[in-house]
Amino acid sequence: MVVRRWYEVLKDWFETLLDRNITPVNRKVLAITFAPRIPSRGNLPLFEVMEGWQKPDTLLQQLSSDMCEASHGYANFTVTENIVLSDFTPMIGGLKYTPELYLAAYNEKQPKIKDKADYADILTRFNGIEKIRTGLVDEIWLMGYPFAGFNESRMGGPGAFFCNGDILPDTDPAGRRFIVMGFSYERGIGEMLESMAHRAEFILERLFAGKTGNANLYERFKRIDWDYPGQAEVGTVHHGPNASLTPDKDDHQWTEIRMVPSRHRTWTNFPNLSGSAELTNCNAWRDTDMTRGHHMWWFKYFPHVPGQQYGITNNWWKVVIDPEKLWP
Question: Domain boundaries in the chain?
Answer without folding.
Answer: 2-206, 213-304
